[in-house]
Every structure is written in structure tokens, then in C-alpha cells.
Amino acid sequence: NWYGIEPQHIMAVDGGHGVGGCDWDGRWNHVTKFLERPGPFTHPDFEPSAEALSGFRIIHVVDMDTIDLSNLNRQFLFRPKDVGRPKAEVAANFINSRIPGCKVASRKCFSKMHQRKFHIIVCGLDSIIARRWMNGMLISLLSYEDGVLDPSSIIPLIDGGTEGFKGNARVILPGMTACIDCTLELYPPQINFPMCTIASMPRLPEHCIEYARILQWPKEKPFGGNLDGDNPEHIEWVFERARKRAAEFNITGVTYRLTQGVVKRIIPAVASTNAVIAAACATEVFKIATSAYIPLNNYLVFNDVDGLYTYTFEAERKENCSACSQVPQDLQFPSSAKLQEVLQFLTESASLQMKSPAITTTLEGKNKTLYLQSVKSIEERTRPNLCKTLKELGLSDGQELAVADVTTPQTVLFKLNFTT
Ligand SMILES: [Zn+2]
């Protein structure tokens, strides 16, 4: 989900005589303690007053998903009767009926136009690609004059994420502080067990499940087609095979639940971790919206796997970040390198991690697609280029390559530098 906070409807904290006739005596007592008196952590430029602006009246919540039964255990907004309904709509209705005066609007999708009017974006996304996309979108909205960033074009991005008992929250001021792509190396690649371990020396119950999933299923095709993680019969089949495999190697711990978790790549969501991270994100929104406090600078780590541990650090901007640096990206290859190698670099480099890059360039004044994966007919037509060398493709030293990918809404420009 992401939440856009619209600034046109600022609500003054006035200790009980607010707009809309829905306030009551003492409603804002807690908030006024922060806004009407100074404290050791208040922003140096902040002047406490009863006039201080506290908030926002309209929150847009965006989520394309509908509610699944398995979502109910880790959140507080959905009830069994809501299963099958759009998440954004149900969440919005719940908050609207619970908190007088708060207006939450729900959307199932967003476009560039929608985002321009928001002052703060809060992300609670479940994938790095989606984070990078939103990050890239906010970067694309920045305006520069003679290379100087116009601060009014910055829309702060507050990003929260959890994985089991671990979580993080961060504040990104696009163009000013480290963005998602600046710190891409922090994200671990998806865990895949080495094939040799799965095939010949399993040590963990997961190895046995992967054996059944990766090696036995494609060979035996028990139900004809592909493995469907939502089909209980399929999971049961993998579970049984994994259990046999585990017994051979004296490995314990293969359960139906674990099988389902491994097949569907589920990392259990823990409600308490989600609550802590959501609170951290909400606190940052409060600080930015009121300007009363200095925002988190800029990355908070939370871990309660064993005891409880939390700290913050300042993630640094990457000088040549492909998303936010405005520095042309260099690609260093010998002219004898094949296009395949360039493609591999774009997907495997820790700082780029693209998914299915489409590479185009300009040759003799014409746009030319060198390789594009997402459209079958174009893929087939451009596939032979992968085996050609950069020289054979007619590319020259200093050539610009435009690369489009799902990880960014904008095309990334690369400059080809031939090495010898
Ligand atoms: Zn960056």
C-alpha cells in the first residue's frame, strides 16, 4: 500500500474547536503537548504555538489487492465479512467510521497526475521493485534549475518494511538524501539454496522441500501442469515427497505449513513488528507535516528476533546513483563484448539489479531496439543481437544506451565506454 497525504486540507490544532464540528474538548491534548511547548528534540526553527498546523484531513490509500482470508491475522482493519473486497476501500471505510473528521479516500491504482498533489508519500510495499518504482516516480517529479534542486518539488517518501521479527523505517527526501536505489546493495538477493545442496547433501527441511519442488515436480508433473502454491493438493504432494526425502537424511521439521511457506516464498508477517514500523512511519509523517521536529536521519532498524534491538544510521547518497544522481551512468566494456554480457551486467550488478531491461540506442539518427524481453515478437526479433559484439552492432565508444525496466518509471541513460 502507499498512502498519499494531501496538503490542501490542513487542519489546525486548536485544542478543541476544530473544523467540521467533529471535535470535542481535549481531543487534541496529546498533540498540543508536542506543538505548544518546546522540548529538547524540537526543531531549532520551530516556534511552539497554538496556531501550529498539525495535520492533514485527507489521506489517499492505494492498494490494488483484495482481502484474502490469510490476511486477517496480521492487521486490525479487516474482518471475515470483508474477504474478497478491495483492501484500500475496506481500510478507508474502517478509519472513516472510527475517527471522526478523518477522510480517507481509497484508490485501486495511481497515476503520475495523482501524485503531484500529495505532500508526503508513505509506502508499506511488499517488493523492492515496487519501492524502486515509487522512488523513481518521486525523483522524476523533481525540478532542477541550472543544476540546483527546487526544494518545493521534493515530496518526502517514508518507507516502512518488515520481514518476520525484523523491520525498518526510513525517510527519503528525493534528490537530497539517500534514495532506495542509493542503498540497493543493502537488500539481500532472494535466498536460493545451492542446487548441489538440494540435490545431494540436504541439511535443512527447506532443502528437502526444494528438492521436491525443483527436481521432482518438473520430472513427474503429478497434476499435469505447473505447481500452484494455492492448490492444497499440490502442496500436499510436495509435502509428502519432502517428508520422504527428509527421512532418508534424518532431517526433521518438514511440515505442511513449512512446505507451503517455502513453495509460496512466504515470510510470516508479525503483527507486532508491523505495528512498531507503522508507528515509526506515522511519527515521521507527524514530524514532517508539522515541522516541529527533525525527521529521522534517515534509516531506522528494528529487530526483536531475540530480545529487542534498534538503532538508526544515516544512509549516504551514492554519488553515481542511477536513480537520483543525475550523473550519466557509465558502462565499461570492450568492443568485443557481446550484448548478452551487457544485459547480464544490468541484471546482476548489485547496484542496478534490473529485472528485464530493454536496451535501445540511436544509430544513424534512428531509434534502434537492441533487445527487448517483454514483448514476445520483439524478443524473438532482437534475440540474435545478444550474441553479437558491441562492435558488430555498430555501437561506438561514447554511445548512449537508453535502458527501460520495471524497476523505474523513467528510462536510464548509460554511456558506453570501450575498454581495451
Ligand atoms: Zn539514489
From TrEMBL:
Its EC number is 6.2.1.64. One of its GO terms (molecular function) is ATP binding. CDD domains: Uba3_RUB (cd01488). The keyword Cytoplasm does not apply. Keywords: ATP-binding, Ligase, Nucleotide-binding, Ubl conjugation pathway. InterPro entries: E2-binding (IPR014929), ThiF/MoeB/HesA (IPR045886), ThiF_NAD_FAD-bd (IPR000594), Ub_act_enz_dom_a_sf (IPR023318), Uba3_N (IPR030468), Ubiquitin-activating_enz (IPR035985), UBQ-activ_enz_E1_Cys_AS (IPR033127). It comes from the Eukaryota. Belongs to the ubiquitin-activating E1 family. UBA3 subfamily. This is NEDD8-activating enzyme E1 catalytic subunit.
